[in-house]
Design brief:
Strand content: 35-45%
Helix content: 10-25%
Shape: elongated
Structural class: alpha+beta
Length: 124
């Protein structure tokens, strides 16, 4: 089933329009908070925008619900000697001058965030 995708702006919100061999229009709010309109190949941008406008209150309820159930990830400022958990293991944070370390750097990717933590393993 060939599927086509495009995006448009409706009332300040980015909406993804996915068309396929289906016969009806459908609306979805993903766990990531994306608004997706699914419809047949002949779906116009005006039809998709009209659906989003009609269902605006439902979309807001879904987005509010997602915000309420999403895990809170507060920004932490680590101080020297503080302990933290990374990938299920406890570590002690230590600030040292870069030239004092000779161990190779290990890069730990943080899933779904696009960030990485650079670490050097040293003996205690």
């Amino acid at each position: 089933m060939p599927q086509h995708q495009r995006t448009l702006l409706v009332g300040g919100a980015t909406v993804t329009v996915r068309t396929s061999n289906r016969t009806t229009l459908g609306l979805d709010v993903t766990k990531a908070g994306d608004i997706v309109v699914r419809g047949p190949h002949h779906t116009t941008d005006a039809e998709a925008a009209a659906l989003v406008e009609r269902r605006r209150r439902w979309i807001y309820r879904q987005l509010n619900h997602l915000a309420e159930i999403s895990p809170h990830a507060p920004v932490r400022h680590l101080a020297d000697g503080e302990q933290f958990t990374l990938l299920g293991r406890r570590y002690r944070f230590r600030i040292v001058p870069d030239d004092a370390l000779t161990a190779p750097v290990t890069r730990q990717e943080v899933p779904d965030s696009g960030t990485a933590v650079l670490m050097r393993r040293t003996s205690p």
